[in-house]
Amino acid sequence: MKTGSRRQNGAIQLFSAEELQIYALISRQDGIKAREIGRELGMDKTEVSRLLSSSALMRELCYQDREYMWHALVRQAPPYEGLYEFSGWYGTVGEFLRESEGTWLEELENGCRRIGRNLNDQRGLIHSFTDCRKTMRALFEDLRNMSELPASSWEIVFELRLNLRRFIRIYADVLVITPGKVFSLEFKMKNGIDPEEVLQAAKYTPYLEILFGRDNDVIPALVLTGAKELFRYENIGKTDAVLPVCSGDMLFNVFNEYMGFLR
Q: pLDDT tens-digit profile of 72-103?
């Protein structure tokens, strides 16, 4: 059983159907009041108000302005307004490819400080950043040579950190946001597969599914940049669900598996 399906990953089990409906409606609006939410969803306003005030989903991913309008921290539509506020670096793939390593790294470091990402152990961390950049640039070069996918218009996030409170925590190394799919890539500078790191790669998938909405499948993968010519599926813990594990030079296979450009 592959990941990339909301039913398989179980995001719908984290919250009630009513909570998910309310959040999805809020995240697609420029602002909406409780009574309008009730009217749109056919729910009692008292129940809507209760969920808005008590649900961890609403408390942590939404806010109410002075005019009693509810907003999501991140909009569920491209460009994902608000996503920048929680990202070390966020832009299109084309913008990423046009930036020099020095400029990109400076912007990423500044972004990490802005979102509270710990930059201690500078030497190892910065090396991991540049290693990740090299792998991603090679991926997009492979996609350009192998397919006609409009990758330059996709969006890409480095170092997503969303942990304002205590319930919803999302730490993602790299997100590649394509039409209908969000690839969540966990990077390790290793050459061997660690089951705990497979679990880590899948850990935030349910929350990302909620953040990006039911129109997007979230596809987690573990990328081992110290390995070569590796691509396989590994079980997530003791479940039947699996996710792809690959070396950096085989990362294009993850995208091909779910987008089918080599078929």
A: 999 988 889 999 999 999 999 999 999 999 99
Distance of alpha carbon 135 from alpha carbon 140, whole angstroms: 9
DSSP string, 217-249: EEEEEEEETT-SS-EEEEE-TTSS-EEEEEEGG
What would the pLDDT profile of 66-78 be if each residue is shown by its tens digit? 999 999 999 988 8
CA 8 to chain centre: 17
Q: What is the pTM of this model?
A: 0.92
Name which of 77, 6, 45, 155 is nearest 37 in CA terms. 45
- Other C-beta atoms lying within 10 Å of the C-beta of residue 11: 20
Burial class of residue 145 (count of CB atoms within 10 Å of its CB; 0-12, 13-18, 19+): exposed
Closest listed residue to residue 64, CA positions, set 51, 81, 47? 51
What CATH topology corresponds to 12-72?
A: Arc Repressor Mutant, subunit A (1.10.10)
Gap between the Cα atoms of 242 and 236, Å rounded: 5
Domain ranges of the chain: 12-72, 83-259
Q: Is the peptide bond before 79 cis (omega within 30 degrees of 0)?
A: yes
- The conformation of residue 179, written as its DSSP 8-state character, comes to T
SS3 content of the chain, % helix, strand, coil (to 5): 45, 20, 30
In this structure, are residues 222 and 195 in contact, taking their beta carbons and an 8 Å threshold? no
b/e map 146-181, b = 16+ CB within 10 Å: ebebebeebbbbbbbbbeeeeebebebbbbbbbeeb
Q: Residue 239 and residue 98: Cα distance in Å, rounded?
A: 41
Query: How far apart, in whole angstroms, are the C-alpha atoms of residue 236 and residue 48?
Result: 36
